[in-house]
Amino acid sequence: MPRGGPLAAACPGGHCGTGRNITCVADFDPSTPSIARVYDYFLGGRDNFAADRELARRLIEIFPPIPVTVRENKRFLERAVTWAAREGISQFIDVGCGMPTMPSTHGSARVSDPNARVAYVDTDPIVLSHLRGLPAREQAGLTIVDGDARDVDKVLAAVAAGLDLTAPSCLIMAALLHFFPAAAARALVARYAADLAPGSYVILTIGLADGAAADRFFDLYSKGPAPLYKHSAEDFASFFDGLTLLSPGVADARSWRPGWPVVSMPPKRDGEMIVGVAQVPGPLPVRPGAG
What is 65-212+225-279's CATH superfamily? Predict the structure, then answer.
């Protein structure tokens, strides 16, 4: 479950009475639904407000598969991050990270590498508050960036304060790119990947849905937290242009397994999360003292 709760962000000053060192947040409007808190509700979390819950429930009524698909997305991310850490990646950049739900990116990575470092990037003040309020034992190795994903140079400059971008890392954009038109999403991934060292990994996920109910879902959501764009599987595959897409390629989150050349086909459903992992091509950088 996510840490804290609505009161962790709603206290009038100082630190909140939650038993955790979570600084209160004054500059936000709890009556306006947020991307991160609606997603938190879909995951069964409690870091959300009445406006978030109202919108989330309406969305679920329109499109019932949504809570299941976001949980499948979370399980995929746990597998993919753990795998990347086992492949020797020790630093991760989670752009548009959302609430620090369990299993977190740093928690998954540290199963294999206890010293893994993670840069979390988001603009939601409640997300940032909860990240900064994580226990001290978890804070070591975390870089928390208040940054818009579109401000690539600014974000990467802040990330570089805690991570070494000359060494391979893993970029994560999970359930993020459907907030951008296809061309903009493709360009955004390319821009981040261009600054990653050869041998780095890129993990992407988006929601895929068709039909009248999905159209109503996209329409209602777009009137709330942010415009939501429908992308095809072909659009999603194009987001990996210039990268080496790893086996099994673009897949349903339920069936993606690292290194499996063939995956089982899960039952067809009105909505699903489609996912993929790719690698930045080129020779691996030579570390100081190597050779």
Answer: Vaccinia Virus protein VP39 (3.40.50.150)
